[in-house]
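Hi Y.,

Following your request, here is the sequence exactly as I used it, all 94 residues.
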Amino acid sequence: MPIYIMMSTLTDEGRKTIKKHPERIEEVNREIENMGAKVLAQYALLGQYDFITILDAPNNESIAKISIEMGSRGTVHIITLPAIPVEEFIEKMS
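Below is the corresponding structure, written out as tokens. Let me know if you'd prefer a different format.
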């Protein structure tokens, strides 16, 4: 399945939720997996974004649906990018 990078920034409401219930992060990951993607890795960040999540999803339409669902909750702003493994990229360029 294709790999996607989801970079997220919490809203004020999202920060309040995480402060009170940090386990909510894992709950959301399970929700994402129930929508058909697999969370491969996730990191909390310092800087412009609060989290980076590496996902395996069936296709662009599936990840778009997940991004819209997560963003519509009002607790997070999301940027989602498709990612090509370097090995595949090199192979395609040859």
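The first strand starts at residue 3 and ends at 10.

Thanks again,
Q.
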